Task: structure prediction
Amino acid sequence: MALTGVTRLGYVHAKVTDMADAKQHYCENLGLLPTTEEDGKLYLKGWDEWDHHSVLLEEGGVGVTKIGFKVNKVEDLDTIEKKAQAYGDVPTERMSAGENAEVSDGLRFRFGGHTIELYHDMTEVGVEVGVINPDSFPQEIKGIGAPILDHALLALDDVDGIERFFMEVLDFYPSERMVADHSEGAPVIATWLSAGNKTHDIAFLKGPDAKLHHFSFYLKDWGAVTAAADLLVHRDVPLDLVPTRHGITRGETTYFFDPSGNRNETFSGAYVMYPDRPCVTWTMDQLGKGLDYYRREVTDTFLTVFS
Amino acid sequence: MALTGVTRLGYVHAKVTDMADAKQHYCENLGLLPTTEEDGKLYLKGWDEWDHHSVLLEEGGVGVTKIGFKVNKVEDLDTIEKKAQAYGDVPTERMSAGENAEVSDGLRFRFGGHTIELYHDMTEVGVEVGVINPDSFPQEIKGIGAPILDHALLALDDVDGIERFFMEVLDFYPSERMVADHSEGAPVIATWLSAGNKTHDIAFLKGPDAKLHHFSFYLKDWGAVTAAADLLVHRDVPLDLVPTRHGITRGETTYFFDPSGNRNETFSGAYVMYPDRPCVTWTMDQLGKGLDYYRREVTDTFLTVFS
Amino acid sequence: MALTGVTRLGYVHAKVTDMADAKQHYCENLGLLPTTEEDGKLYLKGWDEWDHHSVLLEEGGVGVTKIGFKVNKVEDLDTIEKKAQAYGDVPTERMSAGENAEVSDGLRFRFGGHTIELYHDMTEVGVEVGVINPDSFPQEIKGIGAPILDHALLALDDVDGIERFFMEVLDFYPSERMVADHSEGAPVIATWLSAGNKTHDIAFLKGPDAKLHHFSFYLKDWGAVTAAADLLVHRDVPLDLVPTRHGITRGETTYFFDPSGNRNETFSGAYVMYPDRPCVTWTMDQLGKGLDYYRREVTDTFLTVFS
Amino acid sequence: MALTGVTRLGYVHAKVTDMADAKQHYCENLGLLPTTEEDGKLYLKGWDEWDHHSVLLEEGGVGVTKIGFKVNKVEDLDTIEKKAQAYGDVPTERMSAGENAEVSDGLRFRFGGHTIELYHDMTEVGVEVGVINPDSFPQEIKGIGAPILDHALLALDDVDGIERFFMEVLDFYPSERMVADHSEGAPVIATWLSAGNKTHDIAFLKGPDAKLHHFSFYLKDWGAVTAAADLLVHRDVPLDLVPTRHGITRGETTYFFDPSGNRNETFSGAYVMYPDRPCVTWTMDQLGKGLDYYRREVTDTFLTVFS
Result:
């Protein structure tokens, strides 16, 4: 595909109620590496990430204050800005270099209470295994050793609207969608949107505006997901969805909560998505199968607990 | 990324010495599904593919006669044609609908003895699990049950040249490259090129022009790769590289030969690639580690056996 | 250990409400092989079993009518009979060859409504892979392809009593035990008893006399257990405990029901048990962790649904 | 089975050329825990072992000076001593408590240059996860985190003889045997002997007397075996047999060398053995398949490198 536009979810700024607890969780359980800690902000990256941070923690409650997508080239910002202006409706503003430490200038949208930034550059600090005849993983890994941020699921009321915006302005496309029922034009309950070959780089679920459902880290396979769950329960981290397969995307998953109540996910599997692959449709009566392929029941929390 | 240009490797036309043997191998061992058999051609698809075929077999020796990449939109053909003309050097021609059964019109390049086609459409026959509240896999799977074609590795003399062509005209980018040594400007021995988020949709290796190294099917994980190898050796299919991890791409792999001597691969793992992820460089003295992360030796056949 | 006495759980005679449905389940889902079907009885074996049958199905409701343990040598029957007589209390009788088709003479006990037989020989039909330079698995496997019966869990009121009988007369020893609480002499709720190096060849749970909790088939690993669950839910077999790790024995497990309501298990993992390994104790307040290491909750059915 | 006689391989006394290197390997790579270090001897145990040590290292070359099997009861020593005397030929002596630190009195045999001890007790130090409502694994694991010693393979000339001795005096039985060819009475090349339900607690291979082939640690599954190999190659530990499946026992395996040249194995899988399971026979022409199910070739070192 053309190497322009959004390439990936680059960062999540998460609020936490207690920084010491949060640091312990993200560094010791998830195994993220702190790159900077200043002004009450903790910057973290996975061992297989090259940019300065993918998770930024700050005290002040729960939820995400914003997420950032990295675009491939500086020129992409202009292109997207023009498309956004033509699209109308969605407030767009320029963001300056330095508004986010280590991050270039960019664009900022607000939709459904969410702040979404685009940027073209971040200080590069390198993957832990290097790039010359590298090993496949680093010698030292803490806890789960999450390699890399993968995607987020955000809640808002206007799922239809944000899906259209992401498709028309940001060139995402849906791999799977959940609709209310089989009727023509049934409301969209959730959408999983890809910017490339992943089943989703971002997903949206009908729910309260401005709320986070979860953000997710990619593990290499089911064995890694279950080993991660073994470790999490051993450390009394509350699991929200025990290791299972999602029917949606076929991905393997565990949901759990950070000490502040933000939901994290470890995720693997899922098929390779291509733009011409037929989009999958789920109906709400099959949400149980879609969420938890084995149990085929919706957890009490899936549609109700956000942060 | 912008949803234009090449989305994936769509088909491989392979020559085989005996169709009955080949059909038995691709259908019973790999588990591909025959969609059409006519005029001495057998069209095959994986259970998780939606287009009419990804592998076409025809008697007449060994090797591939051509490969095809699917582009996202019909307009992409014009864009690419113009870029190719501007690039020069590489003979380009228009291809008509029907030159390949079930395939739309397109473009055709020749480089290093290889014929490379681009097309924007193929008759859609659907994935075996359907697209409404689907199960994660079909009830009936034969042999390995390879879901989908993933990539190919082709040999040619001018690796530098074809890499540049794929980057400049087709918008691919390299995830990993092997060079002769650590010196500045050392010759490129091999390159793994991505059109999206996979570590490679195509790779090229310095070797005899017009030759195939292997084509590859994506399996879900290491367990599937080893189970596939269990089945293959049980059926006396000659393995060329027993199940191992590639240092290159970190992918998990088995190489084996079809009855005609074309090398197949089953492949899983590999990290998620992004355009801004730093490209990995391998030096030839570490080819053993790159090919076979455990054994750290190059097989006798890797650099010498093509079809 | 001395090669005398009970070597393994050899057979389970299960009642089913409808033979056609049961046959479909045990042959197509579990992948057991029918060896004989006569007089309304269906005899089944796993592909990795050598004796004529390990499961016998008969119409007439649900539950097990009896289970049989194979002893190593014919002389063991005398030894055990004498120990049983010395032990007293437990009615013991001789069983003639032919009372069970294909099964030698033996002994029969009744305890807590359960009929337990011992035998020293059964017609041998051979493992499917043979014994000369064998492959690791057969070419043709249906459904899950359960290789071999592993253990059963039976309910009865007098768990203390049957545990003592199995230990003193049959030379079993406990690997893990669940007691009501941490108090000295707290009642035993359940016991997992080994006749060798498995964590359990039989287990008993406090509950209604004469009832079956489940019988279990050994799969090779966690990947096989989850693949089995994938297949079962795909075929709408009701799961009772979705794939998880037991804290008890560390085994990986799925519980599901046959069409008559008998609970089956597919099981893997668990540590290697030795007679000198310290016995593990669980208290009832930790049953959730013991049953489902991830969820740490007891299912509604675990202590209440028997057949 | 009757809870008398040999229950397991309890210890291996290995010679090493450099204690510091050896300690680094066994503690940091294999993850064994040092329990005592005195008089130039390092005592080690796995996290899932309860006795004081399973591996004892001492400087002075390579190989094993002796191995010890634990019997279930002190009386077993008398029984075995009498059987050994009746058997004749094999020199037997009583061993006093304290000849081996932390180990009870016992018996000692010598056969084919090997010293084999039996003991009924060792100081118990407990498994790392405890025995009351335990977790499935400890929080802190180093390197591979090998839980427990599993078996050893020793070389000697008189394989027939030692097999007969282990069967008749020690109540072992063979799960698999390798013979020279298909002829009646073909010489035994190797034998895998079980004392319970494992495919082997000890194995013997025709070769130079008094030599070690390998000793082995049990891992939970194939994923753990490959993860261990990932770690070993990352740390430049020389692999002798890269991760593969043995045809023999179906076990999953990696062979590697400690810094002194003693071969270690990490091992998983293998079927559950029972005394009445038919013994498997391999012929030497199929050793490749037996050793390395995928490659079907014998490594240069398998029959030639001992320590």
Notes: The radius of gyration of chain C is 18 Å. The first strand of chain C starts at residue 6 and ends at 16. Chain C has a mean pLDDT of 97. Residues 6-119 of chain C form a domain with the 2,3-Dihydroxybiphenyl 1,2-Dioxygenase; domain 1 fold (CATH 3.10.180.10).
